[in-house]
Design a protein that fits this description.
Length: about 475
């Protein structure tokens, strides 16, 4: 297939880096090294985007702070997936008006999915006049140019043009962690699930070139990263826009060949594109973690159809069966929406049945939130909030008991875990992750984050496992 994806020319990225240098010359003359505060809401893709914003800011001469009073530049990277996320951002962005009164030189930026929606951008334009810079995901690569302009001529800037989206390579990165790393392999979504705003704000699906992805991962492996998560709204459709034929399973195979001891994870997968070839590749590639996040959203076929999910409950269950046959200890997680417009409580019970049948290790559960501009927002939604909440509580209660049972089955086993951090709780000073990414709180023993160590599991609850190093 012919490649339709736009790749930003390297000269244009170089021009952005030149803007960074120009800003660095300005900031070098300020009495103190300026600090920036980058606050991130939402998904891992946003975390990855924020790492690039920090990369640019570092080149501009900024250090980092979590204190908005200390920050010369504040960037809030926003999420639009549910109304609750937007309310939190708007509340926090609104409160900055007082901070800026104390620090009038402060530059306040709002970026990400939320501001890519025209009605939200309009609201910020009119009612959040202390916000200087607003830009959507498509404009992120031009951040240096925008900051440079605002530092030299004050004013406000909005960069929220709707577009199919592009790929920008070579943006500097400041990663938040030294053990785990995010690697975006594709951007955007073509699926248009009826409830979801993502395709409207993040543009069409586009895949990074395999050589760029492989080079980034080789470097991460050399730097000692141990847990690499490949990101995309729908990683299973990776490669459909590439000139040379390559699908997601092929990409996994190529990444698996990179030397080093590290785990490969990925998210998110769509059931309609999760193939037997993918499952076989997962089973064969020793670096690919035995874990799959496969959202099914609802268990009833009528609801799935109205959601435009393009798979049935039976097709979903068949895929899970096929995967379990190949990888019996696979850790399965999923996303579920409760209270989609028109879903009856009887239909919702089909969701509970899927839980009983699959026995997920953990779930991410959401109550439907209407997003302006999506088909579902215009659908009749007769069920009361109380009934939705009751159903939601039934769902979480059932999953809690399944999670706890699944966790208890680990007790007595010894697993090779990745030590990934330290905790403040003196009873469990270390945290680690099983290959399937379940959290293990480790008592005693010493190990540095980034080491793979055998841990014997001694206890469990519905949230996590407890263990000791052996
Ligand atoms: N309301 C509630 N949940 C939603 N999700 C996406 N859009 C909405 C919405 N409008 C959930 C889906 C998706 C996850 C990332 O967020 O379950 O898989
Ligand atoms: Fe949203 Fe569906 Fe695309 Fe996921 S696959 S981002 S739920 S439209």
């Amino acid at each position: 297939m012919e490649r339709t994806t736009t790749i930003i020319p390297q000269e244009d990225i170089q021009a952005q880096l030149a803007h960074c240098q120009a800003v660095a010359q300005l900031t070098a003359q300020w009495p103190e090294r300026p600090l920036a505060f980058v606050d991130t809401y939402g998904c891992q893709q946003n975390e990855a985007d924020s790492e690039r914003l920090r990369g640019y800011l570092e080149q501009m001469g900024f250090g980092f702070t979590q204190d908005e009073e200390q920050a010369r530049v504040i960037v809030i990277n926003t999420c639009a997936i549910r109304e609750h996320a937007e309310q939190r951002v708007l509340g926090n962005a609104g409160a900055l008006v007082h901070v800026k009164r104390r620090h009038p030189e402060q530059l306040i930026c709002l970026c990400g999915c939320m501001v890519q929606q025209p009605q939200t951008a309009q609201k910020i334009r009119e009612s959040y006049r202390h916000v200087d810079l607003v830009f959507g995901p498509h404009a992120l690569w031009k951040f240096p140019e925008m900051v440079h302009a605002l530092l030299t001529h004050r004013g406000r800037r909005f960069s929220i043009e709707d577009e199919a989206g592009s790929i920008a390579e070579g943006i500097p990165v400041v990663r938040q962690d030294s053990v785990k790393a995010w690697v975006s392999i594709m951007y955007g979504c073509n699926n248009f699930c009826a409830y979801c705003i993502v395709p409207y704000v993040r543009g069409r699906e586009r895949s990074r070139r395999p050589e760029d992805i492989l080079a980034e991962i080789r470097q991460l492996a050399d730097e000692g990263y141990k847990d690499i998560t490949l990101l995309g709204q729908n990683v299973n459709s990776y490669g459909k826009d590439l000139e040379e034929p390559m699908d997601f399973a092929d990409l996994l195979e190529r990444i698996n060949e990179i030397p080093g001891e590290f785990l490969i994870r990925f998210m998110t997968s769509h059931p309609k594109d999760a193939t037997q070839k993918l499952f076989e590749t997962m089973a064969r590639c020793e670096k690919v973690a035995p874990a799959l996040h496969l959202p099914f959203q609802a268990g009833n076929d009528r609801v799935l159809k109205v959601m435009n999910r393009r798979h049935t409950r039976a097709q979903y269950l068949e895929k899970i069966q096929a995967l379990k046959a190949l990888i019996p200890d696979i850790v399965l997680t999923s996303d579920i929406i409760v209270g989609f417009p028109g879903e009856t409580t009887q239909e919702f019970e089909d969701t509970l049945k899927v839980l009983e049948e699959v026995r997920f290790d953990a779930l991410f559960t959401f109550i439907f939130s209407p997003r302006k501009g999506t088909p579902a927002a215009a659908m009749d939604d007769p069920m009361s909030r109380e009934e939705k909440l009751q159903n939601f509580n039934r769902l979480t209660a059932l999953q809690d008991s399944i999670s706890e049972e699944k966790h208890r089955a680990y007790v007595g086993k010894t697993l090779r875990c990745l030590v990934d951090g330290r905790s403040d709780d003196p009873r469990w000073p270390l945290t680690a992750r099983t290959p399937g990414n379940r959290l293990v709180r480790i008592a005693g023993g010493d190990a540095a984050p980034g080491q793979f160590r055998d841990a014997r599991i001694t206890g469990a609850n519905k949230w996590s496992l407890f263990g000791e190093l052996v």
